[in-house]
Amino acid sequence: MSGHGVALACVAVVLLLAVAFVWASRVHTLNRRVGSFPCSLGRTAQGPWSSGVAQYGADRLYWWRYRSLSARPRARWQRVGLTVVERSERHGGQVLVTCRLGSAVEPVHLLMSAEAYAGLTSWIEATPSRVGSVI
User: Fold this and answer.
1) Are 61 and 54 in contact (CB under 8 A)?
2) How far is CA 49 from the centre of its chain?
3) Residues with Cβ < 8 Å from 14, sequence gap 6 or more?
4) What are the counts of helices (DSSP H) followed by strands (DSSP E) for the chain?
5) What's the chain's Rg over C-alpha atoms?
6) Fewest beta carbons within 10 Å, which of 44, 66, 82, 108?
């Protein structure tokens, strides 16, 4: 291998290590945020599933894919109008949650732990009143 080939291989290794570091740092940061929990998103109730992490916001639920370098969430769901329409136990203590988003036709399918499900339902039920409805 020529000197040019070795240099090119070194650059490729350094770039690969940099991408791996950025990804690991992103996952670590997402998992340590207040209100975050592991949550998979499915196209249907049977999958396929994309692993990720969800986080409660003041007025939205955010979801990031694990297999991504994006700093922005892949999905955002408004807290107002988000309702759980079905819940079923899965193997390994997982809970499959089917949600409706206001008047949307397509439901959202989330797979999470029983503890995360309890937190999700509490977060939905604690939706603050609209400011315009205060007398």
Assistant:
1) yes
2) 11
3) none
4) 2, 9
5) 20
6) 44
Alpha-carbon span 51 to 6, nearest angstrom? 37
Closest by CA position to 76, among listed 98, 60, 100, 89: 60
**This model's pTM is above 0.90:** no
Q: Where are the beta strands (DSSP E) in the chain?
A: 36-38, 40-42, 49-50, 52-56, 60-65, 75-78, 82-89, 94-101, 108-113
What is the average pLDDT value for the chain, to the nearest integer? 85
* Mean pLDDT value of segment 110-121: 96
3-state secondary structure of 102: coil
Query: Residues near 118 by Cβ (< 8 Å), separated by ≥ 6?
Result: none
